[in-house]
């Protein structure tokens, strides 16, 4: 029974959408000014981070000035998964880094610029000897695959923003964004679950998803040729742990629209709409590694091919916020954001096409296996509040809270991609060396989140995560 739970946990991990971030797959904030104030960013000037937060805020800078921001962010998760009677598995993926740069200039009523920012970049690395590498074969044989379990997703944007002063108190803004992304996958699926997923040998279907396609007929032919058992199957599409490069790649476009209205000299109100992305399917070469029993002999089987992740998109998002200048020293901000995950994370779809195989496997070339895994994410509500206090002409202190719902239903939570973090406590500071140069820093701390998937019998604990961002700014 324990190995059945491990097997079910592994199939869900093996074919689920890669996501390990803080507001679902989104960061809790972009730019250290916004992040240190709980992620609030819709109604005040937060520097070039406004490109991705609310492009209309870029219009709040003075005419005839320009600004250059150079930033680096770090994400440091601490994830442990366990199942009854088995040693806990700790992810070795505990450090991911994201650069950003932005330049904006304002002339008259028009602000314009260019920027490059990381949307997100994270993953998990459980290695080759955790319980996630365990298998239960089609015929009940149990063992360890010795195969790697890891994933890594990275999405970046080049942003071209514009902001315009419609009136002295109303500013509109928008951006056209070019996106690129990559995904590595090395994931083990136990043979018993592989059989359930594909219907091999009359195995009962798993409720988590299914596979179809001409490759399944080829597996049926192998069974007639003496294939009697499958111990495990590993999807292996990876650049070998190179964190600057992923095997599956995609590019596409997206856009943002926003406004900022100065309702009173002290109060400003802002809003933004982020359109759903239009990304091409992620594609790359790789292989499916298997251990099978053929005519009584245990042997490896490697099927080379090309994997395509079908219609993986970032969801549309909209939000409203306000900023209140309570005194010359104190500003208070509050935002609400709605992330429509249900429109993009209903199903995770993959298409594997066999190619480049020889010998006995030459007959599978050109065949395809289409895999669908149900996700059924919920839409997510995010509430943000923050404050900035200017101690003197040089030093500003900031703090905030970021409170969100969990978009991932517990039955679909899996140990390789626990996108379950909900709340953040944020701190930060800004220091001006002179009127032209300054630095800003933010630190976000997430309390422990533990989720048990009763269907899998697996508990995953996101014990704590520390995210930081550091930015240097120069004004012209």
Share of helical residues: under 10%
Major sheet: 14 strands, antiparallel, barrel
Order of SSEs = HHHEEEEEEEEHEHEEEEEEEEEEEEEEEE
- Strand adjacency order, main sheet: 1-3-4-7-8-11-12-16-17-20-21-22-23-25
Question: Number of helix segments?
Answer: 5
Which spans of ≥5 residues are poorly predicted at pLDDT below 50? 3-20
General description of the model:
The chain is mainly β. β5 and β6 form a beta hairpin. The protein is elongated, with a radius of gyration of 24 Å. The protein has a 14-stranded antiparallel β-barrel with strand order 1-3-4-7-8-11-12-16-17-20-21-22-23-25. α1 packs across α4.
Give the key terms:
476 residues; mainly beta; 14-stranded antiparallel β-barrel; two-stranded antiparallel ribbon; 25 strands; disordered N terminus
Q: What is the secondary structure topology, with strand pairs?
A:
Blueprint: H1 2-15, H2 32-36, H3 50-53, E1 65-83, E2 89-90, E3 96-107, E4 110-127, E5 134-136, E6 142-144, E7 149-165, E8 170-190, H4 191-198, E9 209-212, H5 215-224, E10 227-237, E11 248-262, E12 267-274, E13 278-279, E14 282-294, E15 297-310, E16 317-325, E17 330-339, E18 347-354, E19 368-374, E20 380-390, E21 395-404, E22 423-432, E23 437-446, E24 449-453, E25 458-475
Antiparallel strand pairs: 1-2, 1-3, 1-25, 3-4, 4-7, 5-6, 7-8, 8-10, 8-11, 9-19, 10-14, 11-12, 11-13, 12-16, 14-15, 15-18, 16-17, 17-20, 18-19, 20-21, 21-22, 22-23, 23-25, 24-25
Helix pairs in contact: 1-4
């Amino acid at each position: 029974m324990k190995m059945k739970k491990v097997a079910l946990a592994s199939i869900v991990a093996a074919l689920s959408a890669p996501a390990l971030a803080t507001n679902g797959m989104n960061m809790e904030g972009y730019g250290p000014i916004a992040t240190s104030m709980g992620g609030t960013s819709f109604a005040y000037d937060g520097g070039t981070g406004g490109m991705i937060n609310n492009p209309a805020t870029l219009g709040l800078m003075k005419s005839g000035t320009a600004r250059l921001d150079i930033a680096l962010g770090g994400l440091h998760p601490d994830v442990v998964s366990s199942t009854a009677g088995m040693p806990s598995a700790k992810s070795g993926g505990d450090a991911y880094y994201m650069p950003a740069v932005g330049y904006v200039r304002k002339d008259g009523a028009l602000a314009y610029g260019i920027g490059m920012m990381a949307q997100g970049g994270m993953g998990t690395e459980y290695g080759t000897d955790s319980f996630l590498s365990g298998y239960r074969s089609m015929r009940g044989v149990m063992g360890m695959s010795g195969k790697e379990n890891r994933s890594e997703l990275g999405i970046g944007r080049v942003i071209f923003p514009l902001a315009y002063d419609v009136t002295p108190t109303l500013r509109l803004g928008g951006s056209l964004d070019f996106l690129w992304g990559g995904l590595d996958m090395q994931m083990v699926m136990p043979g018993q679950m592989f059989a359930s997923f594909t219907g091999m040998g009359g195995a009962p279907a798993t409720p988590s998803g299914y596979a179809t396609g001409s490759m399944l007929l080829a597996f049926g032919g192998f069974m007639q040729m003496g294939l009697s058992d499958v111990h495990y199957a590993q999807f292996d599409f990876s650049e070998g742990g190179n964190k600057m490069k992923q095997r599956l790649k995609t590019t596409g476009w997206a856009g943002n629209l926003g406004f900022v209205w100065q309702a009173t000299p002290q109060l400003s109100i802002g809003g933004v709409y982020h359109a759903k992305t239009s990304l091409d399917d992620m594609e790359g070469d790789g292989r499916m590694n298997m251990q099978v029993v053929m005519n009584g002999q245990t042997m490896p089987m490697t099927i080379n091919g090309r994997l395509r992740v079908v219609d993986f998109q970032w969801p549309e998002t909209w939000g409203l916020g306000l900023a209140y200048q309570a005194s010359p020293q104190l500003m208070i901000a509050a935002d609400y954001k709605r992330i429509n995950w249900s429109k993009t994370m209903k199903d995770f779809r993959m298409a594997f096409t066999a190619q480049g195989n020889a010998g006995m496997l030459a007959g599978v070339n050109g065949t395809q296996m289409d895999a669908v895994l149900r996700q059924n994410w919920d839409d997510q509500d995010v509430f943000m509040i923050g404050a900035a206090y200017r101690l003197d002409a040089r030093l500003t202190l900031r703090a905030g809270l970021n409170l969100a719902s969990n978009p991932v239903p517990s039955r679909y939570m899996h140990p390789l991609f626990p996108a379950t973090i909900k709340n953040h406590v944020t701190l930060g500071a800004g220091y001006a060396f002179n009127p032209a140069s300054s630095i800003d820093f933010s630190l976000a701390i997430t309390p422990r989140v533990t989720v048990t998937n009763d269907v899998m019998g697996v508990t995953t604990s996101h014990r704590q995560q520390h995210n930081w961002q550091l930015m240097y700014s120069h004004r012209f």
